[in-house]
Write a structure and sequence with these properties.
Layout lengths: L2 H8 L5 H7 L4 H10 L2 E4 L4 E4 L3 H8 L16 E3 L4 H33 L2 H4 L4 H15 L1 H10 L12 E3 L1 H12 L8 H16 L1
Antiparallel strand pairs: 1-2, 3-4
Helix pairs in contact: 2-3, 5-7, 5-8
């Protein structure tokens, strides 16, 4: 059932609680899901109408209502929602940006390696200000943030993306949501972080 089908039902012959029950949801949960895509109840019109960007309406109307629902299995575990096409494209762009930053960081790393290979006698050729600058460079390369960029850049690049649902405990889900927010300003999406985690886990235990 598409989003527009649900809207037609609740604005027509069915009630919100009735449709929600059919979908296996509570009335409040269904309302929140519809609100998340800018379908809101209008008191003056006494029906649910679209209040978002008109250019996005057709795309939202054609979405399956199941894609808006974060299902839970019987044990109360959350299911990570699947990649959307928009997220797939965004992640591909983000990977390219990360690779550019990786190239810059790799040059810095190479400089550090060259310095490390110099003998003590040759290191005496550096001035005090140069030594301080080099120490700062070493600390930058060793920082956790730079390490993460380097690891993300090492992910294999692919033009194909497979949609998948992963069942995880609520505690881990909540911890990951909090963790991923730290990187949202760095153009690193939670989907990239999940991909990296799976990639490293397989390499570690393969």
């Amino acid at each position: 059932m598409k989003v527009i089908d649900v809207i037609r039902l609740i604005n027509g012959i069915r009630t919100m609680p009735d449709v929600a029950k059919e979908l296996g949801l509570s009335k409040d949960t269904l309302r929140r899901r519809l609100n998340s895509v800018h379908y809101e109840y209008d008191n003056s019109l006494k029906k649910t109408i679209y209040k978002g960007e008109e250019s996005e309406k057709n795309k939202i109307d054609d979405m399956l209502i199941s894609d808006l629902i974060q299902k839970k299995n019987r044990s109360g575990k959350n299911i990570v929602r699947e990649y959307s096409e928009e997220n797939r494209i965004k992640d591909k762009i983000d990977k390219k940006k990360i690779r550019k930053e990786y190239d810059g960081n790799q040059k810095e790393k190479n400089v550090v390696n060259i310095i490390g290979e110099k003998s003590e006698e040759n290191q005496n050729d550096f001035t005090e200000s140069e030594i301080l600058a080099l120490k700062e460079l070493v600390n930058t390369v060793k920082s956790d943030e730079v390490k993460l960029f380097l690891e993300l850049a090492s992910l294999p690049e692919s033009n194909e993306v497979k949609k998948s649902s992963i069942v995880i405990s609520k505690d881990i889900h909540d911890q990951f949501e909090k963790f991923s927010k730290k990187f949202s300003s760095k153009r690193i999406s939670k989907f990239l972080l999940i991909e990296l985690a799976l990639y490293e886990f397989m390499h570690k235990y393969n």
